[in-house]
Amino acid sequence: MTNTNWLPDLTQYPGPKYLALVRALREAIRLGVLPPDSQLPTVRELAWQIKVTPGTVSRAYQLATQEGLLAATVGRGTFVASSTPRFGPTQSFYAEREPASLTGRIDMRSPRMPDVGQGAAFNAALADLNGTIATDWLDYPSQRDEETLREGIVDWLQGRVLGPVSADDIALSYGGQSAINLVLQCCLRGDRPMVLIEDLAYAGFRHAARLSRAELLAIEVDDEGMRPDALEAACRKHSPQVLCVTTEAQNPTTVRMPEHRRIEIAQIAKTYEIQIIEDDCYSIAQSNVPSLRALAPDRTWYVGSFSKSISAALRLGYVVCPSGMGQAGRLTAQHSFFGLARPVSDLCSSLLDSGVAQQLRLAVQAGFSDRLEGVVNVLGAYDLSWQQGLPFVWLRLPSGWRASVFARMAETEGVLLRSADEFALIHGRAPNAVRLALPGNHSRGQIEDACRRLARLLESPPSELSV
After folding, report:
1. What is the CATH number of the domain that holds 339?
2. Last residue of a domain, one of 308, 338, 354
3. φ, ψ for residue 56 (rounded to 5)?
């Protein structure tokens, strides 16, 4: 139940009141005054009790949640975080895979690669490498060892409009999330730097910012992506250091930002001296629209990975650094993990050099496209957004549904998905919508059956259900 007796004394903590409240929360949790799983007062209730504005409490709750002190779910309240997840999949964005023995359960929370022969391709590449393994696998990896792979990444990106890019501009990482962390390490400075994200965004941005002790501010998006007017207003007021944005495949809404909007975003970043992280991990193979890296090459860090196009198990990510910043990016990576493990870098180099990586990417996208067609065939009559080649769709729910309720009801039908709440900041905008990711480990027929179960729910909002 709500701990209404907890009334912090903010006068003992110097600095802004919202930071004082965060310190008070941290101290109360450390001392056990606020035990795990205890529910905190609502924003307005606590604001009235301690004589501050609701905005002060909301900001403090948001920061404490980013630190992992608190956990919150729209419609349920804010709680002291527990080591045991309280609300199942809403507690953590990173879904644990269900055991194969659980039949009839379709996990559409995160995309999963279709099997298009990756295992056989990896076996063949490793067999080719078998005769070349020598004593150099006994030493720490070096930048010289990765040069061939960086050249392969440049070729891999030929279907993108990135402007002039060479191997010297590339820094390698263990997946896209590692790449985002790497960029923030390069760019952020000061005690509580400000990072801007889309108001519905990939949760990894939030986790990376929390690790860097950064504050987050969400910028409103529309049907063309991030709104330039909202971005400029935030820049004038908050002096942010980094902007995180997706241009080709906005996650979760699937929006593809048009060229004129990209030009506006790039110009604002230049005007206010902001560094840009352009996340393209969900990219399709070809795009003829200039990236932010092409429009603002002096400040854009373009992030990609193999996780959504070949195999998540490889953990290969990369950053196209701003012009002249490649060495800085690689040095930061070296300080973090020395370099990629030689089995990973040599295997990926072999896949790229042989052309097998490109063949696998096309086959994976064909597999996703076939499954996507099945989803659209079943749910296309509803307010569904999708993009050819992407492994997820965005479903806006009809009147009568709340996203969190629909997610719970879908789970009772054996379908796991993500509500909009999981892509929004705490107390941020969370429309009545859900994201359905394509599980490549299930056939098109199985996915269509799952979507038919969802369609039956959509036709019967809670007021009409017999529960």
Report:
1. 3.40.640.10
2. 354
3. -65, -45
Residues 6+ apart with CB under 8 A from 69: 25, 26, 29, 80, 81
Q: Which of these three, 354, 370, 386, is where a domain ends? A: 354
Based on the structure, what is the number of domains in the chain?
3
Mutual orientation of helices 54-66 and 43-50 as an angle, nearest 10°? 120
User: How far from the centroid of its chain's Cα atoms is residue 207's Cα?
Assistant: 9
**Run of H or E residues at 172:** strand 170-173
* Interaxial angle between packed helices 203-211 and 54-66, expressed in degrees from 0 to 180 and rounded to the nearest 10: 90
- Which amino acid is located at 292 in the chain? L
Q: How far is CA 142 from the centre of its chain?
A: 29
Enclosing domain of residue 40: 10-86
Separation between Cα atoms, residue 303 and residue 278, nearest integer Å: 6
State whether 364 and 321 are in the same domain. no
Query: Quick check: helix, strand or coil at residue 71?
Result: strand
3-state secondary structure of 320: strand
Place of tokens 């064909």: 366
User: What's the chain's Rg over C-alpha atoms?
Assistant: 23
Residue 175 phi/psi, 5° resolution? Answer: 90, 170
Q: Which of 199-213, 235-249, 417-431 comes out lowest in average pLDDT?
A: 417-431
**Beta-strand runs (E) in 52-130:** 70-73, 77-80, 106-107
Residues 148 and 286 in one domain: yes
DSSP state of 277: E
In the three-class reduction of DSSP (H, G, I as helix; E, B as strand; rest coil), residue 245 is classed as strand
Which stretches does DSSP call E strand in 10-65? none
pLDDT tens readout for residues 350-398: 999 999 999 999 999 999 999 999 999 999 999 999 998 899 999 999 9
Q: Check: CB of residue 264 under 8 Å from CB of residue 243.
A: no
Q: Which amino acid is at 371?
A: R
- Letter for the amino acid at 118? Q
DSSP structural state of residue 197: E
Note the maximum CA span of the chain.
72
**pLDDT tens track for 158-190:** 989 999 999 999 999 999 999 999 999 999 998
**Angle (CA) 429 430 434, round 5°:** 150
Q: Cα 28 vs. chain centroid, distance in angstroms?
A: 31
